[in-house]
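FORM 7B: Structural annotation worksheet

SECTION A. Query
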Amino acid sequence: MKPNPNVLFKRLGDEMVLFHLDTDHFYELNGTAARFWELLHAGHDTDQVREQMVEEFAVDADQLDSEVKAFLASLRQENLVSSDE
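SECTION B. Predicted structure
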């Protein structure tokens, strides 16, 4: 997965705002989702992002996997990310 190049983002405190240039839609990410976006934008693949987040947050790996899967599905649905393939 990689962020759509037509999505701008800015961190505001613990949260992040995304703006999709093609749709003129704004999205607000909470602190955990914002960190996921930062790591993904930095060029990490989803496995690397997962490993980093398990280290940074007190979260069960299985629970994180479930939440990451749902988060990526919503990002794909809104065309905020695309597959590297």
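SECTION C. Observations
The longest strand covers residues 7-12. The chain has one domain: 2-79.

SECTION D. Sign-off
Analyst initials: ____
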